[in-house]
Every structure is written in structure tokens, then in C-alpha cells.
Amino acid sequence: xxxxxxxxxxxxxxxxxxxxxxxxxxxxxxxxxxxxxxxxxxxxxxxxxxxxxxxxxxxxxxxxxxxxxxxxxxxxxxxxxxxxxxxxxxxxxxxxxxxxxxxxxxxxxxxxxxxxxxxxxxxxxxxxxxxxxxxxxxxxxxxxxxxxxxxxxxxxxxxxxxxxxxxxxxxxxx
Amino acid sequence: xxxxxxxxxxxxxxxxxxxxxxxxxxxxxxxxxxxxxxxxxxxxxxxxxxxxxxxxxxxxxxxxxxxxx
Lengths: 174, 69
Description:
The complex is a heterodimer of chains A (174) and B (69). Chain A is an all-alpha fold and 174 residues long. Chain A has one domain. Helix content of chain A is 74%, strand content 0%. The mean pLDDT of chain A is 80. Classes of the chains: A mainly alpha (174), B mainly alpha (69). Chain B: This is Helix-turn-helix transcriptional regulator. Chain B: It comes from Gillisia hiemivivida. Chain B: Pfam families: HTH_26.
């Protein structure tokens, strides 16, 4: 089966552009987070972590490490997504790589959402913030929506696998 | 798979080569090889019809069911 044709080349360029922008912004964000402990009074840097001031050193280090892990996880997910889209354009559809990438992307999204939720709860407990940690059910930026997206990607990988099996079967029909 | 393809036997009986059959029924030798080695997942009726016509045999001469249990 042929891949999607090239009139969608601008979309590929747009994706690469977005990826570079995100890498730069996440890189700056991580750099900012790494500098937070050195400037505990700085309002700007403190706002990066969403906390007003620091008292508990271990908690801060843990939060910084988990924040960096979340950022790196986000970059990796985006990288997998970029590779997947490029593969959809350039390689035959329903390849083994696409099936694995879709599954990995779905798992990464779900894992990152769970880690982010734990991070938020932990951060609220440590800094005694009174913000609600409840799930907003009917909003596009809700965690539930992101979880559904992750599940959708896993389901899509299942559909791709079925399609690959059907294609293989069709090719072996004499 | 419990369906066995006896194409080799029938071809031998008729004294025909694989490539000759492939040419006669208008399929590639690669596809005929897939059929002969039992790798095929399905056989079109049109292919079966062409094979039977060229080899002057019945579908039962080519296909055989063997119970694996």
C-alpha cells in the first residue's frame, strides 16, 4: 500500500518547525528550573515551578527532578509523533514501525499524564497550595481528554495491526 | 494449515513444469510458488478454475484436507 502523497509537504515542515520551537522552549524551561534553587527569592524563576518560596530542600530537588523527567518525556513523545508522521508520509502505510510508534505514543501519553497528576498532587502537598486537583471532565485541556487521546493512539495501533494482517493476507491470495 | 496443495503431484502427472503452468494461467511464478509451498492464505476461484482447465483435473485433485487432530 502506498504512503500518503506529498502535497502535504508543508505539514511536514510545520511539524519540524513546531518540534524545534518546543525543544527550544522546553530547553529554556528546564534551564530555568535548574536555576531555581540558586535563586530562591526570584519571583520569575519561582513561578516556573508554580510555588512562591522554598523551605524543604529534599522536596524541591524531587520536584525539580520529576519536572525535568516530565519535560524530557514530553520531548520524547513529540519526537516519536514527528517520526510517526514522517513515516506516514514517506513509508508504506501499516508498517511495523507505525504500529509500534502508535502504541508507544499512546503509552507515553498515559504515563506522562499519570506522572503529571502525581507531580501536581505532590507539589500541592509540599507547598500547601489550596488549588483544586480534581479532574475537569468537560474541558479540552483536561487530563481525562489526554488519557482518552493516549487510549485512542493505542486503539489506532491495534487497527493498524489488523490492517497490516489483512494486507499481508491479501498479498498471499493467489 | 490442514489444507494441503498437491499441485506438484498433479504437475508431475501431466509432465508440466511450474513456469509453464504459471504462463498458461497468467500468474507469476512467485505467486505459483507461494501456492505450491502452502504459504498462500487464499485461492481465487478464477485461479483454481484456470489451473483445473489447464491441468484437466478437479479442484479436489489439487486441494486436500488433512485433519491435524
